[in-house]
Amino acid sequence: MTQTHRGCPVAHTDFTGSAPILEHYRMLDEDREKARFLFNDTTDRGFLMLQRYDDVQEGFQQHETWTTAVRSALRPGLGEPLLPQDLNGQPHVKLRRILNQFFAPAAVRRMEPMAKQRCIELIEEIEDAGSCDFVKEFAIRYPTDMFLALLGLPVSDGEQFLEWSDDYFGALLAGDPGRAEAAKTSIMKYFDEAVNERRAHPRDPKEDMVTRLVQARIDDEALTQDEILTICLTLMLAGLDTTRSALGYIYAHLAQNPADRQALIDDPALIPKAVEEFLRLYPLVFQAGREVQEPQDFNGLEVEKGDVVWLGIAQANRDPRKFENPDEFDVARHNANQHLAFGGGPHRCLGMHLARLELKVVLEEWHRRIPEYRIKAGTELTERGVQLSMSSLPLEWDVEA
Amino acid sequence: MFIAIDAGKCMGHGRCYAVAEDLLSDDDEGFVAERGRCWELPADLVGQAQDAADACPEGAIAVTETAPADA
């Protein structure tokens, strides 16, 4: 590497393609150990890579001058408006304040009985078959149903809704605006009807998020219908594919590491700790982007207005300077909670506690019913770049005759 | 021993009160209710305070021998 940009070595690693499972983490680890900061030239704008835990954490905390005008270093031009994350500063804080209470641990705890019941129903649908494609038949259906429940919508709409959301998300990641727009139209019409229904028949705004959004005032102004629909769309984009992906990696791990699986079966009280360690080890959103608004020296890196900064979430979570034996799953790891899988700073993932609940409930209820399972022989697991996800995870288990 | 929780750095990850439930509590929005405070720890809660500091992804919690000068 002889080329430099802003004093950084230039790297050409492409993180957008498909690859064998876990290959992206290997590429990310390799880049992190090349140099503290890199400039990657594989996109039109390129990006300055922050890769070590301390730098990534500090990068998330630079929110006053590094904004979400760019949200993904790999897709800086992704024009889809998202709320609240497109806002910065006080307007962002004010909207988060309205939403936070529906995603706080106390609110999420109120959802737990429903979360368990729905999870059990979905497991019971596939249990007797002795096999399933875990990501297609379970890992996406569950968060979809939970998302509808969060919005106070019937989970019976889940299957139809899933088709739209999958189509939309796939088209966005593939950079196919025509197909994305078509799928989005159906979704927005569905949300529009739901929001209008709530305007006509408000529920308790302390418990019902859509009613709260309809009634909320920020600086004496109501949110517009478009803003409310954008919030709904954002929650959908943030919560479905990610949870599916997390479950995919967790189950691929547990199917291939029977000792780790047995430990959770023997002592289900370990599951919340295991969830944190899985989040550390297998973060799906492996990077976040930010756009620099003011020139500054960041720990020796000169950044200029307009630069795209890469915050290397997976590189931080697997940084040996922070986490001992970072490639190992260690349920007793004392600092696993400090992982940055949900980001950091004021934009940290709104749905993190709901995600934790969903992962915990699935691990508890699944292993109670299907403790032994394996990946179908001959399967080659692959992962999608940009934001990691497995397209398929065929699992098999023995069924009593 | 003292604990200090930086209100500017706390972003509501909720890890601290999950591991130190006798020491810390959550508010309606999911932030630690004690953020912005600094106080002396009873001896039996020093361990939980250290766990809380070790759990914070923002580095917002400090556990120190003496009261921080700027608190």
Question: How would you sum up this structure, described in words?
Answer:
The complex is a heterodimer of chains A (401) and B (71). By secondary structure, chain A is an alpha+beta fold. Chain A has a single domain (4-396), classed as Orthogonal Bundle (Cytochrome p450). Helices cover 49% and strands 12% of the residues of chain A. Chain A has 14 helices and 17 strands. Chain A has helices at 23-34, 53-60, 89-103, 105-127, 134-139, 141-150, 158-174, 177-200, 209-215, 225-256, 258-266, 271-281, 313-317, 352-369, and strands at 4-5, 8-11, 19-20, 37-40, 47-50, 66-67, 131-133, 217-218, 221-222, 288-292, 296-298, 301-303, 308-311, 374-375, 382-384, 389-390, 394-396. A 7-stranded mixed sheet of chain A has the order 1-2-4-5-13-10-6, with helices on both faces. In chain A, strands 3-15-16 form a 3-stranded antiparallel sheet. Chain A has a 3-stranded antiparallel sheet with strand order 7-17-14. In chain A, a hairpin with a 2-residue loop joins strand 1 and strand 2. Chain B has 2 helices and 3 strands; from the N terminus they run E-H-E-H-E. Chain B has helices spanning 16-19, 46-55, and strands spanning 2-5, 38-40, 61-64. The radius of gyration of chain B is 11 Å and the shape is globular. The A-B interface holds A 57, 61, 97, 100-101, 103-106, 272, 334-335, 337-340, 342, 344-346, 348, 352-353 and B 9, 11-15, 18-19, 26-30, 54-59.
